[in-house]
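User: Predict the structure for this protein chain, please.
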Amino acid sequence: MSILTLKDGTEFFYKDWGTGQPIVFSHGWPLDGDAWDAQMLFLGQNGYRVIAHDRRGHGRSGQTWDGNDMDTYADDLA
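Assistant: Here is the predicted structure, written as structure tokens:
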């Protein structure tokens, strides 16, 4: 489990498990990256690299007032 700091200073929490072809999981509202744990465990045990994050304003990521829109969420993952 790791945290990276985005360009605007927001802390961005993510999990990155395994090796192999990567699969990125993005949760819906009002969840966080933990919603994908069962799928991540299965795919990680079957040779995939699995990555899940907590969107800004969710879970262990920074609780920001700004940037809670799909364009910013996409930029955060880029």
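The beta strands are 2-5, 11-17, 22-25, 49-53.
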